[in-house]
Design goal:
Blueprint: H1 2-16, E1 40-43, E2 52-55, E3 71-74, E4 80-84, H2 94-97, E5 98-101, E6 104-106, E7 126-130, H3 133-138, E8 169-173, E9 178-181, E10 187-191, E11 198-200, E12 213-216, E13 222-225, E14 237-240, E15 246-253, E16 262-267, E17 272-275, E18 287-290, E19 296-303, E20 312-317, E21 322-325, E22 337-340, E23 349-354, E24 366-370, E25 375-378, E26 390-392, E27 398-400
Antiparallel strand pairs: 1-2, 1-3, 3-6, 4-5, 4-7, 8-9, 8-27, 9-10, 11-12, 12-13, 13-14, 15-16, 16-17, 17-18, 19-20, 20-21, 21-22, 23-24, 24-25, 25-26
Bound molecules: calcium ion (CA) (4 copies).
């Protein structure tokens, strides 16, 4: 059986043009402990008492593999392995055609057929692995992000790096790679090395009308990456040093009403500060926004959440509550309003990139809340409150900005 499998692999490789460098020499050894580090091993029998094949890369076409792959050992370094019945990582029905395993050794679970259906023949015609489920399933490092069509969305002065009127996102993956997500499910790779940075964006800071990105490095230096207007970033400029003492910072739009986007920061003593933007990528002398932020977990600028014409801020606290701080249009806030009574402590990240859901209130900004795995979108009502959240579970091991 084994030479047949390898011959079929080589033939399929020639036909579809992928490189079958991963096929290891036949290993007559038995036992999971013979699977080399860095490889994904498939055994002929469930008890691993049979020869194995070891693979170092994804297999797009292992057909016709009429072997059940009764036992596998994922030593690839990927946290998940996915095996498909059809070739090319395709599936017609996830219940019948695909199964996913956590790392380690074991017997792949048989696909559970949907009600009334017969399970497919036990084939394993393609498989690959990844650090996250989305990498395993889609082969992509980034998540599917769909923010509605741009025709219905009014362009807000933030949340739109490429200026098409449609909300977009930046996603940083576990390995420090950064992607621009355009809102139509597409991702553009922006580069690696971002893991040491704290990132934030909210509108234009340089005066060219294109949204920019702020980044603080491990040494506490704040950098500005000017947006190019197409989702990519230009050469960074140095804003200043000494930002390590800030627990949180984020551009918040024009909070003081002079026409330039501003920056807000919370220090470790619970004080909030406003750094007025000068419209050229720098900031003037800071002004106090008051004490009493010591219990704040995180905050983000939402744009005008309550419809009074002034940009607002929302902040979560250590007891899990969510507050709206209504901007007063001249550099301060009105009395804060409780808009979430509990559970918000599970989201390390809050973010607003505009109106991304087509419901409740047209053109009202929605709030994104990110936990370790999930991204939940809370629809803005346009009256300063939020509707019920919608969860998307395909955002593990990544951050959004
Ligand atoms: Ca956009
Ligand atoms: Ca700019
Ligand atoms: Ca301003
Ligand atoms: Ca407002």
């Amino acid at each position: 059986m084994r030479p047949t499998i390898r011959t079929a692999l080589a033939t399929a490789a020639a036909v579809v043009g992928f490189t079958a460098t991963a096929v290891a020499p036949a290993d007559a050894s038995v036992g999971f402990d013979h699977c080399p580090v860095g490889k994904f091993c498939v055994f002929d029998h469930a008890d691993n008492q049979a020869p194995m094949d070891a693979y170092a890369g994804p297999q797009a076409s292992a057909e016709p593999w009429d072997d059940e792959a009764p036992a596998v050992y994922n030593r690839s370094g990927g946290d998940f392995s996915c095996m498909w019945s059809p070739a090319e990582f395709q599936y017609l029905d996830p219940g019948r055609d695909m199964y996913v395993r956590a790392p380690g050794i074991g017997t792949p679970p048989k696909p559970v057929p949907p009600h009334g259906a017969k399970p497919r023949k036990d084939e394993n015609s393609s498989f690959r692995w990844g650090r996250t489920l989305r990498e395993c399933q889609s082969g992509k490092e980034y998540s599917d992000w769909n923010s509605g069509d741009g025709e219905d969305a009014k362009a807000l002065p933030f949340g739109d790096l490429n200026g098409d009127g449609q909300a977009d996102l930046l996603q940083r993956n576990w390995n420090g790679s950064l992607y621009f997500l355009d809102g139509n499910g597409n991702g553009t790779y922006l580069g690696r090395g971002w893991n040491g940075m704290t990132l934030a964006r909210h509108g234009d800071l340089t005066g060219d009308g294109k949204e920019d990105l702020l980044a603080r490095d491990r040494a506490g230096v704040l950098w500005l990456y000017p947006g190019k207007g197409d989702g990519r970033l230009g050469k960074r400029t140095r804003v200043g040093a000494g930002w390590s003492g800030m627990r949180r910072f984020a551009p918040v739009g024009d909070l003081d009403g002079d026409g330039h986007g501003d920056l807000m920061a919370l220090d470790t003593s619970g004080h909030a500060w406003l750094y007025p933007g000068n419209g050229h990528g720098g900031f003037g002398r800071r002004e106090s926004l008051g004490a009493g932020w010591g219990s704040a977990l995180t905050f983000t600028a939402t744009g005008d959440l309550d419809g009074d014409g002034h940009g607002d801020v929302v902040a979560s606290d250590t007891t899990g509550r969510l507050w709206r701080y209504p901007g007063n249009g001249h550099g301060g806030f009105g009395r804060r309003v409780l808009i979430g009574s509990g559970g918000w402590e599970k989201y390390p990240t809050l973010l607003c990139v505009g109106d991304v859901l087509d419901d409740l209130a047209w053109n009202a900004p929605d709030l994104l809340a990110k936990s370790d795995r999930e991204l939940t979108t809370y629809p803005g009502t346009g009256k300063g409150t939020l509707g019920e959240g919608r969860e998307d579970w395909n955002w593990a091991r990544s951050d959004i900005f």
